[in-house]
Amino acid sequence: MGDAAGTKKFSIGRIAIYAFLTLASLFSLFPFYWMFVMATRPSAAYNSIPPTITPGNLLVENFQKVLGAIDFFQAMLNTLILCTSVTIVVLIISSLAGFAFAKFKFPGKNAFFVAILLTMVIPPQLGLIPQYYLISKAGLLDTLQGVAILFFLNPLGIFLMRQYISNSVPDELIEAAKLDGCSNFRIYRSIVLPIILPAFATLGIIVFTAVWGEFLWQFTILRDPEMYTIQVALATLSNTFNVDFGMILSGVFWATVPLLIIFLLFNRLFISSITDGAVK
């Protein structure tokens, strides 16, 4: 009787958890669904009462308006180039720095690490003017390089890599490799990199989506329409006198699709890094 009661209680508890997770998932996904609905409706549906929650038939027509107003595909290509290059550089720099902070001893190690972490609490707006001045003096205005260089040093990435390498790469393995004559870079390439691939996926998704959604710095640096990223290009769709919400949200919807594809491709590694840390 006791086992049956415990099983019943456990089953009810699991059902309650699954029900809560399902509702939370639906609540989280609703903004994306509403964005899709508005992308298929005329602009007037945006302020309709009661709100419109069923898709319409204007998805193609609204997207054609977007194509007529901005060079959507060029902006998407610019954004993909920017996000991919920044992600690759951040992964390399963060993993190398994280490896150094996690497994090496050198003077001022803790002070350097704390200084890097402290940069995370500085609002990015405070550095906008001096950063713009430096990029201007370097001749990188209106270039993707000028936008990308600001994101190369990622304090969060260095912190995540340091923590993951500290917990996942045994010191004995590194010592054994050194006894075999491996250089530090070969240890990084042949031992550390294969172990931290799940963390790579996690940090890659974080960096890619963060750069994709960043607007202020991109809007400050880019003035040539041919160099616009998708965020800057979409910002030009609205004006003071006439805002076509159907057109704008259609552009936003199609600009979100690549992010969903990226996450679906790498979500297994992303989840693996989380569960691996939990198990350890």
UniProtKB/TrEMBL annotation:
<keyword id="KW-1133">Transmembrane helix</keyword>
<keyword id="KW-1003">Cell membrane</keyword>
<dbReference type="InterPro" id="IPR000515">
    <property type="entry name" value="MetI-like"/>
</dbReference>
<dbReference type="GO" id="GO:0055085">
    <property type="term" value="P:transmembrane transport"/>
</dbReference>
<feature type="transmembrane region" description="Helical">
    <location>
        <begin position="111"/>
        <end position="133"/>
    </location>
</feature>
<keyword id="KW-0813">Transport</keyword>
<feature type="transmembrane region" description="Helical">
    <location>
        <begin position="245"/>
        <end position="266"/>
    </location>
</feature>
<feature type="transmembrane region" description="Helical">
    <location>
        <begin position="15"/>
        <end position="36"/>
    </location>
</feature>
<feature type="transmembrane region" description="Helical">
    <location>
        <begin position="75"/>
        <end position="99"/>
    </location>
</feature>
<protein>
    <submittedName>
        <fullName>Sugar ABC transporter permease</fullName>
    </submittedName>
</protein>
<keyword id="KW-0812">Transmembrane</keyword>
<dbReference type="Pfam" id="PF00528">
    <property type="entry name" value="BPD_transp_1"/>
</dbReference>
<feature type="domain" description="ABC transmembrane type-1">
    <location>
        <begin position="76"/>
        <end position="266"/>
    </location>
</feature>
<comment type="similarity">
    <text>Belongs to the binding-protein-dependent transport system permease family.</text>
</comment>
<keyword id="KW-0472">Membrane</keyword>
<feature type="transmembrane region" description="Helical">
    <location>
        <begin position="139"/>
        <end position="160"/>
    </location>
</feature>
<feature type="transmembrane region" description="Helical">
    <location>
        <begin position="191"/>
        <end position="212"/>
    </location>
</feature>
<dbReference type="InterPro" id="IPR035906">
    <property type="entry name" value="MetI-like_sf"/>
</dbReference>
<dbReference type="GO" id="GO:0005886">
    <property type="term" value="C:plasma membrane"/>
</dbReference>
